[in-house]
Design a protein that fits this description.
Number of strands: 0
Helix content: over 70%
Distance between the termini: 51 Å
Largest sheet: none
Low-confidence stretches: none
Mean pLDDT: 93
CATH architecture: Up-down Bundle
CATH topology: Ferritin
Bound molecules: magnesium ion, fe (iii) ion
Shape: elongated
């Protein structure tokens, strides 16, 4: 049976919604643990707010197209994020690995919304296209911020890590 472009748009919107649930869990775990990196923590907290807004926007697109959000995918995403959080806690360079995975995740989001914009454009769904374009802007800004701060975060980590009695990892 053939899949219509509209079905694909709806599927990908659901995937994006699951991805944003995973993002919220991951970012929340990171922000809660960070103690000595206030700039990174503040930027992550800002992006948690943006991520919640993105979820609402995606839900609006999904219900406009007559679908519902997949609780199974959402749950899987949350469990994966929980697992990643546990793994992160055992790392001595947690903040560096967290910033690295954050940057990778943002780029996955950038690719996902670029795909959704093209698909929405192809089916003439301008509302979904515009929503995804607005979300994409936030992901690009977050990816750019992380890229700019990977160096400074690493420098701070190295400095703290070689100082006796000072916690570096978070
Ligand atoms: Mg996002
Ligand atoms: Fe993001």
């Amino acid at each position: 049976m053939a899949t219509t472009p509209r079905d694909n748009v709806l599927d990908w919107l659901r995937d994006a919604h699951g991805m944003e649930q995973q993002a919220e869990s991951m970012l929340t775990a990171q922000a809660e643990r960070l103690e000595n990196y206030p700039d990174l923590r503040a930027r992550i907290q800002q992006h948690i707010e943006e991520t919640r807004w993105q979820q609402q926007q995606l839900e609006a697109c999904i219900s406009r197209l007559g679908g519902s959000t997949s609780t199974v995918k959402d749950l899987t995403g949350k469990l994966m994020a929980f697992g990643q959080g546990i793994v992160g806690m055992t790392m001595t360079d947690e903040v560096v690995k967290g910033a690295l995975s954050g940057y990778v995740f943002e780029n996955m989001e950038i690719a996902s919304y670029t795909i959704l914009i093209a698909a929405a454009e192809a089916v003439g769904d301008t509302a979904t296209r515009d929503t995804c374009a607005a979300i994409l802007n936030q992901e690009v800004a977050m990816a750019r911020w992380l890229l700019e701060h990977l160096g400074p975060v690493t420098e701070t980590f190295l400095l703290r890590d070689q100082t006796p009695g000072v916690q570096a990892k978070r």
